[in-house]
Amino acid sequence: TPSERSFIALKPDAIQRGLIADIVGRLERKGFKLVAMKLLTPSKELVEKHYEDLKDRPFYPGLVAYMAQGPVLAMVWQGPGVVKTVRQMLGATNPAQAPSGSIRSDFFLVTGRNGIHASDAHASAEAEIALWFKPSELVDWKRDADQWILS
Ligand code: DAT
Ligand code: MG
């Protein structure tokens, strides 16, 4: 649906390395619509909840520490097929296995510093949006270019 949304976050390594414009620019140029964006240092509790599914994995403590260092650029993007298409734009979790031309392939080297998160399904997207944003932080705006991007 055109109003499908995904939660996308640039991780602390992407911010520290000055990659915000390069990565956000790809999402913007693709045609997806930005509906929320904030830079924050997430609490350990927030990161733990975000990655709750992985809590029994050996890398979980390191993952939580990396993310909670911040800053993280948390975003919500909207558009038809946004969840699946952005996952394709990211490439595999391990940048060494991501197809060339994908974000993780082009900017990152290893799984533990793979720079960007994107929701993997519609249900997780809605849960993650609710975890990271208050409803009032989502901006309802009309984009004039939609007539040239959507039909
Ligand atoms: P993705 O971020 O592609 O959705 P995931 O949900 O399986 O991947 O894991 C979340 C993050 O956890 C991932 O982006 C990086 C980290 N991670 C996953 N597997 C890992 C591993 N084997 N070693 C270290 N970090 C890992
Ligand atoms: Mg995941």
Short description:
This protein is α+β, with helices and mostly antiparallel strands and 151 residues long. It is 41% helix and 16% strand.
Describe the structure.
It is an enzyme of class 2 (transferase). The chain has helices at 12-16, 20-30, 44-50, 60-69, 82-90, 103-107, 122-132, 146-149; strands at 5-10, 33-40, 72-78, 116-118. It is globular and about 45 Å long. The model has no long low-confidence stretch (mean pLDDT 98). It has 151 residues and is an alpha+beta fold. The longest helix is centred in the first third of the chain and has 11 residues, at 20-30. Residues 54, 59, 63, 93, 111-112, 114, 117, 120 line the site of 2'-deoxyadenosine-5'-diphosphate.
Largest sheet: 4 strands, antiparallel
Instruction: Evaluate the radius of gyration.
Output: 15 Å
What share of the residues does DSSP label as strand, in percent? 15-25%
Order of helices and strands: EHHEHHEHHEHH
Counting DSSP E segments of at least 2 residues, the number of strands comes to: 4
Shape: globular
Ligand types: 2'-deoxyadenosine-5'-diphosphate, magnesium ion
Structural class: alpha+beta
The number of distinct helices, counting runs of at least 4 residues, comes to 8
Strand order of the largest sheet: 2-3-1-4
Classify the helix fraction into a percent range.
40-55%
Distance between the termini: 12 Å
Q: What's the assembly state of these chains?
A: single chain
Poorly predicted segments: none
Family: Belongs to the NDK family.
Active site: 117 (pros-phosphohistidine intermediate)
Keywords: Kinase, Transferase
Domain Nucleoside diphosphate kinase-like: 3-140
